[in-house]
């Protein structure tokens, strides 16, 4: 589910929506449990925004079908017990019960839990337990066969998916499973100027004002954007920069990870680089998954655009290098750094370094 910025919601980190301008929203900092917030939305506004997010979520047919297909493979009628972390409206638990799950525990931080209870009654769905709170703060969790947590964001990890599923291993019986099982994040150079022009408005404001300080802050942010194939020059040049095995038998991935990607200029559709696009592919089970690739069918999620401080002009034999460093520890929230280098004959001829924490404005 995509919820860019705001106060925590279910599981470890669902959040209220960011303010948006046009089709873009800016990801600056993500709240997590135990983080004090600078503000709290009024309850009425929070309720409206929460249901709007779930309206979009439940209107995402590919997402719903993927989870239904995965649950159908894992639920053994009359036997399987489920913990639904970040349950929201209870939709995934309802699917599991309709498939024959013996019992589902719905864990939800926000007031959506009361709505889930009402929907369960309206649909005659029983064998459900409702727990209000964060999954990580439940000291004696129920032991279940399956943990399901759809806490995916536009930036895949903005809602705490990794930390949620690592902690949720406490909930599993021996041999228990989790959904999803694998997450891969991709990056690709953006060669068309459209996205950068939408964001980098500062030099055009005019009125004799120097807004360069604001521009620097702005360009150190990740932006939620609808990235089209044309923005990538019509060619999928995406490379994997993050590959997470979320299965409980695998070694728990670290919350701090980094990767370096390289593209030869000759392999790119254009010589001018404006920024980078990020997207993800989530494998619920082998053969059952979701993708936010610009080349995949659209979902309710969008992509992420990482701007550059200035465009790069690559010569024919240049190499473009992107170093990404991600930190999603609960006391940090989400921090992403991106460093770009232009290499010519093995030597650096251009370099830019950006960090989402430099894009913060303290309230």
From TrEMBL:
GO molecular function, one term: histone methyltransferase activity
Biological-process GO terms, alphabetical: methylation
Methyltransferase domain span: 80-184
A Pfam family it matches: Methyltransf_31
InterPro entries, per the entry: Arg_MeTrfase, Methyltranfer_dom, PRMT_dom, SAM-dependent_MTases_sf
Residue span(s) of domain Protein arginine N-methyltransferase: 186-327
CDD domains according to UniProt: AdoMet_MTases
Keywords (A to Z) from UniProt: Methyltransferase, S-adenosyl-L-methionine, Transferase
PANTHER family: PROTEIN ARGININE N-METHYLTRANSFERASE, PROTEIN ARGININE N-METHYLTRANSFERASE 7
Protein name, as recorded: Ribonucleotide-diphosphate reductase subunit beta
């Amino acid at each position: 589910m995509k919820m860019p910025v705001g106060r925590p919601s279910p599981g470890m980190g669902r959040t209220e929506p960011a303010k948006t301008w046009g089709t873009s929203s800016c990801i600056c900092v993500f709240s997590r449990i135990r983080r004090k917030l600078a503000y709290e939305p009024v309850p009425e506004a929070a309720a409206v925004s929460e249901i709007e997010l779930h309206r979009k979520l439940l209107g995402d047919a590919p997402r719903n079908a993927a989870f239904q297909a995965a649950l159908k493979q894992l639920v053994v009628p009359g036997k399987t017990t489920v913990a639904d972390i970040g349950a929201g409206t209870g939709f995934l638990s309802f699917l599991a019960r309709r498939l024959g799950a013996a019992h589902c525990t719905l864990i939800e931080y926000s007031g959506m839990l009361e709505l889930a209870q009402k929907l369960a009654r309206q649909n005659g769905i029983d064998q459900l337990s409702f727990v209000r709170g964060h999954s990580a703060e439940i000291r004696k969790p129920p032991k279940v066969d399956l943990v399901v947590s759809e806490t995916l964001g536009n930036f895949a990890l903005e809602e705490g998916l990794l930390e949620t599923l690592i902690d949720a291993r406490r909930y599993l019986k021996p041999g228990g499973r989790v959904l999803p099982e694998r997450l891969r994040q991709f990056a690709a150079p953006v060669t068309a100027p459209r996205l950068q022009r939408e964001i980098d408005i500062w030099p055009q404001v005019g009125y004799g004002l120097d807004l360069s300080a604001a521009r620097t802050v702005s360009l150190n942010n990740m932006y939620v954007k609808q990235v089209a194939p044309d923005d990538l020059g019509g060619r999928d040049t995406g490379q994997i920069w993050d590959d997470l095995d979320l299965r409980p038998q695998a070694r728990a991935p670290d919350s701090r990870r980094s990767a370096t990607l390289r593209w030869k200029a000759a392999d790119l559709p254009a010589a001018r680089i404006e920024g980078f696009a990020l997207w993800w592919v989530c494998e619920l089970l082998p053969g059952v998954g979701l993708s936010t690739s610009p080349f995949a069918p659209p979902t309710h999620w969008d992509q992420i655009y990482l701007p550059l401080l200035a465009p790069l002009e690559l010569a024919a034999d240049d190499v473009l290098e992107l170093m990404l460093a991600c930190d999603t520890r609960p006391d940090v929230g989400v921090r992403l750094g991106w460093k770009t280098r232009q290499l010519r004959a093995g030597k650096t001829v251009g370099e830019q370094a950006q960090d989402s924490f430099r894009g913060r404005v303290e309230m």
